[in-house]
């Protein structure tokens, strides 16, 4: 016979599931309504006059492709790299990184792709950095960071790479930030964040570096803060509507998109929200078709790709889906050759 405590636990579980379904339905309905409003405004007012935000792929590269690097396949980190060529819609192998990495970061400077830190083959945080050059199509060692970091994020602003937060060699969350200047080949520390984080996301938009979500040592958070790379100052930004960790983010059409991950109850998420820097507000966007965490995202050809990761059963995924802004929907894309999680992705092309 079911006890009072067991009945209470069952009822609470049912309430949580119902609440999640209702939130998903509200988000999807809101996304459809927003799409209808935007389409009506577009018909009435003509094309929007939003200032175009340059991206490396759009402004300085030709034949851009999505590169997916490292992560976990099985229970160990590996160094394999593959890339998606949008002209053929196929994935192909690229020379592997020199080192095996998981939960690391990547950044693109010109025709060079930098991979930073992460967990190495011993499952220990590393400060090692290497770079891939599209001219030589080979990897080489680069100046290591000043601090070993894993489960962190990086972005480029003002022609320099910023490595933000993460876990140190004692598995403690960090607030520190360091910056790589390719002109001097050196790393130096800049002002730290106001809070410690790991499992967060970082993007740059017009010389502003946005840091979102993650785990602060006590809870998964929705908090967002922003670093002005020109002034060297941090400021608070409106929080996301949902706390997220091990999620992905990217800039699409001048807005910041955050996708999936898991919340403070370890519930895998397929929900998506976006931030408009003009209004400084977050709003719901159409959800992905699959719950994902520990995955990667990138923008190519004006569409947002979500690649690999862990599903709601924590099984590794090879599946890829992409968001088509004009249609306001997610569609299937060619799957990865290797199912993986804890990997990183970046868009890289031939230098002009």
Automatic annotation (TrEMBL):
Region (Disordered), start-end ranges: 26-55
Family annotation (InterPro entries): Kelch-BTB_domain-containing, Kelch-typ_b-propeller, Kelch_1
Pfam family, any one: Kelch_KLHDC2_KLHL20_DRC7
The organism's place on the tree of life at top rank: Eukaryota
SUPFAM superfamilies, sorted: C-terminal domain of PLC-beta, Kelch motif
Compositional bias (Basic and acidic residues): 26-47
Name by which UniProt lists this protein: Uncharacterized protein
Organism annotation: Alexandrium monilatum
């Amino acid at each position: 016979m079911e006890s009072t405590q067991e009945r209470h636990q069952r009822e609470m579980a049912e309430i949580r599931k119902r609440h999640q379904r209702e939130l998903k339905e509200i988000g999807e309905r809101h996304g459809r309504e927003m799409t209808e409003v935007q389409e009506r405004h577009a018909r009435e007012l003509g094309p929007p006059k939003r200032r175009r935000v340059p991206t490396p792929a759009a402004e300085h590269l030709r034949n851009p492709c999505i590169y997916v690097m490292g992560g976990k396949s099985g229970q160990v980190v590996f160094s394999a790299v593959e890339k998606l060529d949008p002209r053929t819609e196929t994935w192909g192998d690229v020379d592997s990184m020199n080192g095996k990495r998981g939960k690391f970061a990547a950044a693109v400077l010109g025709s060079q792709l930098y991979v930073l830190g992460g967990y190495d083959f011993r499952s220990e945080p590393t400060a090692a950095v290497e770079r891939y050059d599209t001219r030589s199509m080979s990897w080489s060692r680069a100046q290591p960071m000043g601090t070993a970091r894993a489960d962190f994020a990086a972005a480029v602003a003002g022609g320099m790479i910023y490595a933000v937060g993460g876990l140190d060699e004692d598995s403690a969350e960090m607030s520190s930030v360091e910056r790589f200047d390719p002109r001097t080949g050196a790393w130096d520390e800049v002002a730290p964040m106001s809070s410690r984080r790991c499992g967060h996301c970082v993007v740059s938009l017009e010389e502003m570096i946005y840091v979102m979500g993650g785990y602060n040592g006590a809870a998964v958070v929705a908090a967002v803060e922003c670093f002005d790379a020109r002034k060297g100052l941090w400021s608070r930004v409106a929080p996301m509507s949902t706390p997220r960790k091990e999620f992905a983010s990217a800039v699409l059409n001048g807005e910041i998109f955050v996708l999936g991950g898991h919340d403070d109850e370890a519930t895998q998420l397929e929900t998506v929200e976006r931030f408009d820097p003009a209004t400084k507000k977050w709003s719901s966007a159409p959800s992905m078709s699959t719950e994902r965490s520990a995955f990667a995202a990138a923008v190519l050809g004006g569409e947002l790709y979500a690649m690999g990761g862990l599903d709601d059963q924590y099984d590794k995924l090879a599946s890829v889906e992409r968001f088509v802004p004009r249609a306001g929907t997610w569609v299937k894309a060619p799957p990865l050759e290797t199912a993986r999680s804890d990997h990183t992705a970046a868009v890289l092309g031939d230098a002009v």
